Amino acid sequence: MKEKAIIDKIYARNIKVLREWFGETQEDLANAIHVGSRQTISKYETGESDPPFIVLEAIANRYNVTTDLLLNVELPDLKVDYSKFIKNFNIVNYYPICNFSAKDEDEYFKEAYNYTKILINIMNDTINGVENEFSDDEYSCFEKAIELYELSIREYKNCSSQVNMLFLMFTYFCSLCDGYDEPNTTHNLDSTWLKHFHLEMSFKISEEQKEFIAEYEAEVVDVLCILKKESKYYLYADYYNAFRYIIGFVDSQYNLNQLRMIGVEFMDTLRLLGNPYAKMYIRQEMKVFKEK
Known about the structure:
Largest sheet: 2 strands, antiparallel
Structural class: mainly alpha
């Protein structure tokens, strides 16, 4: 009877699975959520002891899942491996851009697109020295591209420029997350940094990001509505609308974990419907996981 009772406690197995996904020891988790010792976590994982709901919430928040998922969904027993993610990382797999044939675009778009390509190359070339905010070179390209895309939109109502403005706004929003340790420091993009980022940084909305949401979310929604009506661009609109929930670019009473769950479900639905950008996103994310 004892063994069956333990098996029925889905959360017990899930705590261990999630902890191992993120490469933490039982002691790491105990220290992070301030509960007793390694033995306390061990008892939770075997079902010998039932954690109070506030502890379940802390564990769910630690690993960016909802308490409902922690309690009711049996998670696959996978291993997190960042090596393929690091090796194949490309910023446009997460932030797609328009690069249609130059003959289809106005002069402002063409010039802005050249700055955008430079910006993408800088981001990808410096990926092994992860910065917690835009460098001077990146910001210079960013400003010039923004100015030119705005001219393209104002004078030609160019939807390609609208898409690439989303790229710029979303990448800038993500650059405003709280830094790794000290301002203006860089870190190697390795498993240690990514683990720290996923556990300590990426599940929080910084004050700067909150200010950015307050100032620009309505503008982003307007752009998404415009693109959604265009047959050539609606796939971008759907993708960025789902992605903004995943990164927390939403003014909402939901917490970031809940927003991300909404965004991931939205993104997976888009994948099933054949959205190529959603397929790319899911494929990139799944590179992190492999069977044990």
